[in-house]
Protein: Ligase-associated DNA damage response exonuclease
Amino acid sequence: MSVLQFTDKGIYCAAGDFYIDPWQPVERAVITHAHSDHARWGNRHYLCHHDSVPLLRLRLGADISVQGLPYGETINYNGVTISLHPAGHIIGSAQVRVQQGNETWVVSGDYKVENDGLSGQFEPVPCQVFITESTFGLPIYNWQPQAIIFSEIREWITENQRAGKNSVLLAYSLGKAQRLLYNLKDAGIRFLAHGAIAIPHEVLLAQGYPLPPVQRITPDTPKADLKDSLIIAPPSAAGTPWMRRFNPYALGICSGWMQVRGHMRRRNADAGFALSDHADWSGLLQSVKATGAEKVFTTHGFSSAFARYLTENGIPATEVKTEFGNEDEESTINETGDAANTETPQQDS
Structure:
């Protein structure tokens, strides 16, 4: 029997009797990261990287049963050894290494290979079988170095200031927003944020992360505070009455989907920045090869195309259908800045 199996509840280890990122409630869940499509409400017990613990409590409830584990430390479930390893996706994200006897499988979760300075550096983990995401598994998706993208964002903000416009950037509330704040903290601007971003930001500040101060936007926020500021909001805020208070403003979107210009036009944005917290095509190939895996399973995204390419190039690969979310999905956000459904918070791209 395989170390891991694909079931209707998620990726399952029968010998250890646990699931990895299950999409239905189970007894024991090993969680790769705190995004809502991977960390769902209703499991009896959660295991995750210790930096994800406060994020899981924020999103799933303070009373959940959760255990944190440092990178590289092992834990044993019924003779199966589990360890977590850096994924570089968001704060606390991890790959899950599962070893039974002489066989090792690794579940990537979501990952990126460029170090954003905040989420850690992705580390390939040697294994016989690698289960990898393939969100951007097409050759068209190749990211510029993030230093170039952040320089473009700073220039865009300056141009908006000269034109007398406020700058509003749409970015997912957990991961992308913190990456923006961390890498723009020395730009000499004030940061204002939607409540969906300000709330996890406060949690991470309390954990000691080197993030700049953020002013939460409320109905009482003075117009004067918007001047020479960067306003960060989740994508679900676009086109809502909440945005009217920023007129006149320029709208920018930070997402890997902005690599294809048509996406920016369809979203009625003034600017698009191809900044993603997922590996691009070359990053995916680099990571798969670095594991030395003899077999690869591809999940969510362009999984079929990526599996076909790997197989044609000498690495046996199979697409696996999962219930992990699409990158343009978000929960509904109300005007006060709170999630209308706290069990389905924002996801990423």
Observations:
- The domain at 146-273 is CATH 3.40.50.10710 (Rossmann fold).
- The chain has two domains: 5-140+278-319, 146-273.
- Helices lie at 53-60, 146-162, 176-183, 195-206, 261-266, 281-291, 303-312.
